[in-house]
Structure formats: C-alpha cells, structure tokens
Amino acid sequence: MGNPFGGMMDTIFADKEVLTESYQPETILEREAEIEEYRYALQDVLFGREPENVMLYGKAGLGKTAVTTYILEALQTEVETRDEADELYTHEINCNGKTVFMVVRQLVNTLLPANASEFPKRGLGTGDAFTELYEQLDRLGGTHLMVFDEIDHLDDADTLLYELPRARANGHITNAQVGIIGISNNYTFRTSLSPKVKDTLMETEISFSPYNANELGTILQDRAEQAFAEDACDQSAIRRAAALAAQDMGNARQAIDLLRVGGEVALREEADCVTDDHIGAARERVQRGRLQNRIREQTIHDQYILETIAYLEEGDETPVRSKEIYDLYQDVAAECGDDPLTTLKSIQDHLSDLHMLGFLQRFERNEGLSGGQYYEYELDLNADIVIETRKTIEETRL
Ligand SMILES: Nc1ncnc2c1ncn2[C@@H]1O[C@H](COP(=O)(O)OP(=O)(O)OP(=O)(O)O)[C@@H](O)[C@H]1O
Predict the structure, then answer these.
(1) Is the ipTM of this complex over 0.85?
(2) Which residues take part in binding ATP (predicted)?
(3) pTM check: above 0.90
(4) Who lines ligand 1 at CB under 6 A?
C-alpha cells in the first residue's frame, strides 16, 4: 500500500491559522465605540499619568480579549514614540480558580529580577505578597496595566480591587503607576462588590453586546479573505455562518468556528469551495460535539438512563413512565457490567435531575382519583447522538 498521506492536497485553505483561537486579528471590526471608550480611559498613560481603571462586561466570544490585546499593543507602540510617557508594562492574569494571594504572587513573580527566587507558595500571607508587589513596582517604576480576566471568579475580588487602585494614594508606591482592567462575563459583578470598593474604584465600564448578523458577516468576510484560497469560499457560506451564530448568541468565536469546520467539511468532500450546505453540516458537527461533551459529563447511571430512553424513543415508546424506564435501565446497566441502582425512587430522582439539566422533557399526567398523578418522560435531544456517544464511551472504557 502507498503512503496514506501521499497525494493529499488542500485546495480550500490558504492560511487556516487565521480561523483559530490563537490568531490575533490585525484589525478589530465593528467595535469602534468600545475602542473609543477604551482609548479615552487609558490615554493618561501617554502623558505619564495614572490611567483610569476599566471594567469590561460581556458574554463569551464578543471580542473583550481581542479588543484588549489590540488596544494594549497600540498603546505600547505609541508610548514608545513619546518622551513624556513612562515605560509601559502590561500583565495579564486569568483569575479563574485563584485566590487573591495566588494572583498577587503571580504578579510578583513576573516582576522579580530574572535571578531572584520565586515568591514562596506557602508560609507567607496575602499582606506579605502585596508588600513585595509594591516593592517590585517601585523598583521598576513605569506604568503597569494589570488585566484580570474572569475577575468575577476570584474568591475575594474586593481585596484586590480595594488595595491595588489605591496603592499610590495610600503611599505604598511612589515610583510607579497602576491601572486595573477587569474582564467579566457576569454583568452583575459590580453589584457583588462591597460599597467601599464601589465608591473608590471609579472605573470606566465598557459593555460588549452580542454581534448581529451584519456585524458577524463583516468579521467573517475579513477572516475568509485571508484564510481561504481564491474563490474557495462562497459568499452565501459566509452569510449562513454569520446568520446562524447571530441567531444563537451573537458570538464571534462560534461564527469563526463554523467557517473553519465548514472548510474542513468541504475539504473532506473534495469540493471546490465552501458552500452554505457545508456550513449547515458544520453546525451539526459543532452541536453534536457539544452535546456529546455534556453527556460525557453526567454520572454513569445518568448516562444509562439516557441510553435507556433513547432505545425506548427508537421503538416509538416515548413519552414513557419511570417504571418502564427502570425495567429497561436495569438491563442496560447490567449489559455494561454495572450493578443497577436498586430503587425506583432513585431512578425518579435521576430523571428529575436530567429534566432540570435540559436532557429530558417531562409531561405531567393526571388520571383523576383512580390513576393518580405521574410523569412521563422523553428525550429533549437526538436519540442517535445519545446512542452514538454511549457506544464510544463504552468502547473506550477500561
Ligand atoms: N470585533 C472583532 N473583530 C475581529 N475579530 C473578533 C472580533 N470580536 C471577536 N473576534 C474574534 O472572535 C474570537 C472570540 O473573541 P474574544 O476571545 O475576544 O472574546 P471574549 O469576549 O474575550 O470571550 P471570552 O469571555 O469567552 O474570553 C477571537 O478569535 C477574536 O479574535
């Protein structure tokens, strides 16, 4: 047999990396108003003054990170041309799963001289970490913009947001300036802060709203021109990807993913160019992938229950009562070599959880005095996907 890769050609993509998450676009489109507010908030850096603090709000994929990277790079370029501006340092930290101590320690470690040993993980407290941070900031001087992504996930954002912005006013640092940029998916983050932080932070708030289909179309057009070979992507494919993502959450990441996966489908089919049908197929693949991940995240007994209802659905036996689900579930679990849960009540609890999580639809039946009240269930997702996912999970289980 010849080399399986021999003769493979890519006539669709010219530069596929442009459609990946790690790619930073040279131009940010459709965010002029947000960039303008950002520019205004940070302009003091150019004149050697402390900038305003900034809080960015918006759901996933709306350009908060892309706009921040773009604006900080532009600011750095401009600072380098101006004598009156201090040296600019930018620090980016994701706060998810971190304590204030961990965040401050991470900042300290990025500021320490190359030959110094790291700030200890244990033995010292948050106050010590702040003291070291102030010392390092003063040693270096300049302006430090600190970007805290997912700041709403920080266990004690109050302490961080009370301490840092006031460090200079409180005399902890004299030689450096600090600006805070917080990024949050949660619009109510501000209301969770203590009144004293709210009063002192004095931040500029920039909120990112979902993109509409036209805006996503402009973003995708720009990417498609760079990513695809000449004439390898139909205009209708771009419009379809933009429309589908706009209908969903207005998320640019999702729109770009659809275009990339659409390109992959076209390549696999050895088509000349990406069409709107390829985008439709891409959406199904992306949705399938997402659903499969959600199924995998459930406990094994929840998965058996879903699999059981999928079989019942295939035999046109749904909606179905918990008792019937329980009977077949026992076979499904045993078939997979597991001891089934032994009471109907425990199955009913699982059914109720799966309904709450959106996997199942539930119908209340009332048969008056004689039959009483009970529930019937059916899948709220595609039975094929459940069976297919379960099959792959079982195949890879030890
Ligand atoms: N206005 C835009 N112009 C060009 N590309 C954009 C724009 N907005 C978003 N993107 C692209 O969409 C993807 C998602 O954007 P980004 O990571 O900035 O979203 P985010 O709001 O920070 O989301 P998350 O909260 O999930 O991190 C990135 O690949 C980014 O380059």
Answers:
(1) yes
(2) 211, 223
(3) no
(4) 21, 25, 28-31, 58, 60-66, 185, 219, 252-253, 256
